[in-house]
Amino acid sequence: MPGNATLRLLEELADMTEITDVTTAVIRQSLKTDFKDYEDAIQYHSALSILDLDFIVTRNTKDLKRANLPFSHRLKHWLALVVHSEFVS
Question: Mean pLDDT, to the nearest integer, of 43-55?
């Protein structure tokens, strides 16, 4: 089980982000795409439901390069958000 510090960080990240549902429509759209990785297809089609998406955080940028959504493979974006929230709160 993760330590308390890890749980607090995950709770903060969950509070700062929008968590989308994986719906039947997302699954069906993902099955019809040409993504090589099915999980990437699900992530992409789930992200399309977020109106003001800033970026997707992923380690697999290769498959998302042709996607029409911004992405980042760097954790620095998340850390900047966490640090910013510490000073704003």
Answer: 84
Query: Domains of the chain: which residue ranges?
Result: 4-88
Long-range contact set of residues 7-10: C-beta below 8 Å, sequence gap at least 24: 9/82
Q: Phi and psi dihedrals of 37, rounded to 5?
A: -110, 120
CA angle, 22 as apex, 34 and 13 as ends, to 5°?
Answer: 110
Are 66 and 49 spatial neighbours (Cβ–Cβ below 8 Å)? no
Q: What is the pLDDT at residue 88?
A: 46
Count CA atoms within 13 Å of residue 27 on its CB side.
4
